[in-house]
């Protein structure tokens, strides 16, 4: 059923030219566009969301919702939305680039329903006085739960065992059928010790794991002691970890940071978990390293191209556990993320700064 209210995003009525330069200065010198009248306020939502979540937007203007839940809007729809809307609620799969932002005549905010925002050209938005927001905090614990589930699945070979059972291939108990690796007592390396990294570390302590980490900025010593965790340089993290979890937000300088050389530099028999953003790992190199048996297993919830292409070689690697980017996928958390994105839009369109502005230089 189509979830749009009012109008579809098909007509081409333009926002009056005079609205584009009405700005005031927000926190840290960030320019903010004035809200304008109700007739100016078209709010584009790039996926179907529950009506209860969208309700606060209804009184602020015309809400135009892309009618699909799983299929993203094509580029031409996003281009039109950027040109006409006062606010856009986007997902991480919606690429909002400089060309789209330059077409924005009255756009005041792009509210991304994700903690990451590398799908948006934040610097271009800032130049145009457009707020960009994300949804931090609300998905930290849920994503950490998923990371531990992925770690356990990869190390204990749970998908392989479950698949064999369903395919009627289990012939009975055998001493070395479906054997995996112990989790307890292992050395866990965390690349990116932000909120989610610290939440994963807390869970790993319940498995009596030793925690190493590498970060752009070292944590205060009191925080390290409280986890407890030991800061190491990148080389030591790679060489010493039994399990290495990638949780750093994507940045251009991290593209393929885990390349063939780094992956072969990991312990033989180690496990790699990727749960932040695709592109940090060279997936072709990972396929090679897994097939060669240098790594025991890998678990990925994110990929360089999403959805993952049907002919991607990772799909044929038996010791890779692959999930369709479900780190925050619980009913409670997805609702909180949507509500947070809506709240940021409401704040901007009622003349207040948003709760969750992002910085052009990243988190």
Automatic annotation (TrEMBL):
PROSITE patterns: D_2_HYDROXYACID_DH_1
Region of interest (Disordered), residue spans: 1-37
Gene3D superfamilies for this protein: NAD(P)-binding Rossmann-like Domain
A GO molecular-function descriptor: glyoxylate reductase (NADPH) activity
InterPro entries: D-isomer_2-hydroxyacid_DH, D-isomer_2_OHA_DH_cat_dom, D-isomer_DH_CS1, D-isomer_DH_NAD-bd, NAD(P)-bd_dom_sf
One of the record's GO cellular component terms: cytosol
Assigned keywords, A-Z: NAD, Oxidoreductase
Domain D-isomer specific 2-hydroxyacid dehydrogenase NAD-binding: 148-327
Residue spans of biased composition, Basic residues class: 10-25
Sequence ranges assigned to domain D-isomer specific 2-hydroxyacid dehydrogenase catalytic in this UniProt record: 44-358
PANTHER family registered for this protein in UniProt: 2-HYDROXYACID DEHYDROGENASE-RELATED, GLYOXYLATE_HYDROXYPYRUVATE REDUCTASE B
Family membership noted in the UniProt record: Belongs to the D-isomer specific 2-hydroxyacid dehydrogenase family.
Descriptive protein name: D-3-phosphoglycerate dehydrogenase
Biological source species: Hydrogenibacillus schlegelii
Taxonomic lineage from the root: Bacteria, Bacillati, Bacillota, Bacilli, Bacillales
């Amino acid at each position: 059923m189509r979830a749009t209210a009012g109008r579809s995003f098909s007509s081409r009525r333009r926002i009056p030219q005079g609205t584009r330069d009405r700005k005031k200065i927000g926190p840290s010198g960030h320019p903010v566009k004035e809200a304008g009248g109700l007739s100016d306020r078209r709010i584009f939502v790039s996926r179907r969301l529950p009506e209860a979540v969208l309700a606060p937007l209804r009184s602020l203007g015309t809400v135009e919702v892309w009618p699909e839940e799983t299929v993203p809007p094509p580029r031409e729809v996003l281009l039109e939305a950027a040109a006409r809307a006062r606010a856009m609620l986007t997902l991480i799969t919606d690429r909002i680039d400089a060309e789209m932002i330059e077409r924005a005549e009255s756009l005041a905010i792009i509210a991304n329903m994700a903690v990451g925002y590398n799908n948006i050209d934040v610097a271009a938005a800032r130049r145009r006085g457009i707020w960009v927001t994300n949804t931090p905090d609300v998905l930290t614990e849920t994503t950490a739960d998923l990371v531990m589930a992925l770690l356990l699945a990869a190390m204990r070979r749970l998908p392989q065992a479950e698949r064999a059972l369903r395919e009627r291939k289990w012939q009975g108990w055998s001493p070395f059928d479906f054997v995996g690796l112990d989790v307890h007592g292992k050395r866990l390396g965390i690349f990116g010790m932000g909120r989610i990294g610290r939440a994963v570390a807390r869970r790993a302590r319940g498995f009596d794991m030793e925690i190493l980490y590498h970060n752009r900025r070292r944590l205060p010593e009191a925080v390290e002691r409280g986890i407890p965790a030991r800061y190491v340089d990148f080389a030591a993290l790679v060489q010493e970890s039994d399990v290495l979890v990638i949780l750093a937000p994507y940045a251009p300088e991290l593209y393929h940071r885990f390349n063939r050389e780094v992956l072969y530099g990991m312990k033989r028999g180690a496990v790699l978990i990727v749960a932040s953003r695709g592109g940090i790992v060279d997936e072709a190199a990972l396929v090679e390293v897994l097939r060669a048996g240098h790594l025991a297993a890998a678990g990925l919830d994110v990929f360089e191209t999403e959805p993952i292409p049907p002919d991607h070689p990772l799909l044929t690697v038996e010791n890779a556990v692959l999930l369709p980017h479900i780190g925050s996928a619980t009913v409670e958390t997805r609702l909180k993320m949507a509500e947070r994105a809506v709240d940021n839009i409401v704040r901007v369109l009622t003349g207040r700064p948003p709760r969750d502005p992002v910085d052009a230089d990243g988190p």
